[in-house]
Request: fold
Amino acid sequence: MGALLNQRFLTLVVLAAVIAVLPLLFPSSYYFRVASLVWVAALAAIGLNILMGQAGQVSLGHAAFFGIGAYAVAIGPTHLGIPSWAALLIGAVLSAVLAYLVGRPILRLKGHYLAIATLGLGVLVALVISTESGWTGGPDGMPVERLTLFGWRVSGSYTWYWVTGALLLIGTWIALNLDETPTGRAFRALHDSEVAAQVVGVDVARFKLQAFVIAAVYASLAGSALAFMNGFINPDQAGFLHSVELVTIVVLGGLGSVVGSIVGAAVLITLPQALTVFHEYEHLLLGLIIIVSMIFMRNGIVPSLSALLLRRARS
Amino acid sequence: MTILKGTDLGISFGGVKAVDGVSFSVGSGQILSIIGPNGAGKTTLFNIVSGIYVASRGTIHLADEDVTGLAPHKLAARGLSRTFQNLQIFQRMTACENVMVGRHLREKCNLLPALFRTPSVTRQNRETRAAALDLLAEVGLKDVADVPAGSLPYGACKRLEIARALAAEPRVLLLDEPAAGCNAVETEEIDHLIRQVADRGVAVVLVEHDMKLVMKISDRILVLDRGRPLAEGTPREVRDDPKVLEAYLGQHGAREAARA
Reply:
């Protein structure tokens, strides 16, 4: 118990230290921007990992909630005169409500069937966003008003580095909190054996839905943050490829590992930047690296490496 | 006092009557064993009683309340707990966490306090862990409390399932072949454990192939054959029933039963 508490605390301290120290190594504001993109993607992935890694349910349409968060802070202030911060909350609530309503029927499905149903949800939301051009600017996207908090106008890649870093820290803390609670245990139990979870009294449908809603809210907040940061938003953020990217981050980093989602996001966001020197081979190499790392670290980067280190330490 | 009662239960799968007109009842502190050859419908009956299958006919009463067709988690909330013939442990969780999940119904489980880990959540977690460790000690698994359940040997997993089922503090416990694949010493331990549980006032329904164990600890025995009830009575009555002897225990089983 004490050890587990320490492990959680240690993870947060290390993460805070990394966020604090990284800027010392950054030669230009471009690095701040890339790092902020990592923090945002990691936030969304941590949420999705609660659904996929802990509760064992897949979502192939998770960018839908990312898009809802992003478009909420774009549409709210521009078309409806809602303050930016309130639009962010409204986006999160909308995502939660949609996840709840859609989750109730589709979370009865399992495996591939659930994957296709969530895929459908993602496609539907992306379609609405790109066709309702009067509200969303259609395929061209739309500008997002800057976030203003208590008269403080949040802008610039340096500022956003710290804002997204703080968000990630909070998101990590909450995800780690779940671990040693009845809710977290119920998630992991239904992942391993639904029938056994049921007979000890776990309302499986309820907990799947909770995980889905949590994941949706994480994605929505990440989407809002990205929209504010970029000052611009387009339907790609809600699209299928972005959903796949989120799933890739979760699986690459390690299912069920909070730190894994952060590492996965770091790899998947920074690698393409680093690989640009290879020009047209960039995507080829990215794909190769992902394949090779999945072959040699099939449980994901973080769980595989920590198991390896543990074995080394013992021998 | 009868706590669990099934009346005229039946279910078919594609025209095959897996369970057909089976009735039984068990009282607090009693041990009822259900025996019969493979395919007799024992596990199917368990699945009906625990809410995993919905019976196509018949009723189930738990403490005088009609619970026919209730979902498993609702039956669990009314005091019914079970183990599985094919192990259903939470492989990726530790042994202790497995039992802690068993305490689910005894815990307050609200999402927001969990997400922000309020002091009450931490306190409750400590209590749940202590209760789980006690149960693990009872089944002799305290040493492996923090080992992932997936890496435990088979016999240990069997006992872990019993501990998890007991963690819910059930009024009725269904045990599906708890001694299967266990050696003589382990079977002896399970025998002892089942008696202890029954002595505490829990009604135990047991499906088991180990005739020695069944004859020794059962208060009553129900014999099934191809989904239908064949005989019912005390171990002595069932043992002396020529139909049962010939068809289901066989000569070898009869000899073993006589020795027990």
Observations:
- DSSP finds ten helices and ten strands in chain B.
- Chain B touches chain A at residues 50-52, 71-73, 75-77, 80-82, 84, 88-93, 97, 100-102, 104-105, 107-111, 114-117, 121-122, 124-126, 128-129, 164-165, 167-168 (CB under 8 Å).
- The CA atoms of residues 29 and 200 of chain B lie 7 Å apart.
